[in-house]
Amino acid sequence: MAEPTPHRNQPRLRPAPLLFEPAEAAGDPEHFFDLESIDDPRALLSRATELAQAFRAAADRAVEFQAIAAAQLADPRRFDRLTSADIAERAEWTEDYAKKMVEYGRDLSQGRDAGGPESI
């Protein structure tokens, strides 16, 4: 998986912005954030690295939100709480992974950093 996200009390690094892709460019399978138009390999490596880091950061952040949502859905105080199996089905996870995500989400909600669902 991607590099671990920073601890709750550490500031998040802001990766390079993901520039908006116009609809006609997004429909072209060869077009990807205008990388194909960069001729200089140094500039291409630099921009591609910025994008890779931005996507990793976005994916890590999305996983944190998944975990928080899973923990909220599994909260025993909810009258409509879901089981780990229900959460796993909705998120297309295994039940074991759903349990880890619920625990990770609880840790995040309480301000603890457990290091992510893979480390639980």
SSE map:
Layout: H1 23-26, H2 41-74, H3 84-91, H4 95-109
Helix pairs in contact: 2-4, 3-4
Describe the structure.
There is one protein chain. This protein is mainly α and 120 residues long. The longest helix has 34 residues, at 41-74. It is elongated and about 55 Å long. The chain is built from 4 helices and no strands. Residues 1-5 have low confidence and may be disordered. It starts with 22 loop residues before the first helix and ends in an 11-residue tail after the last helix. The protein has helices at residues 23-26, 41-74, 84-91, 95-109.
Tags for this model:
mainly alpha; 120 residues
Describe, in short, the structure shown.
This protein is mostly helical and 120 residues long. Helices cover 51% and strands 0% of the residues. It contains four helices and no strands.
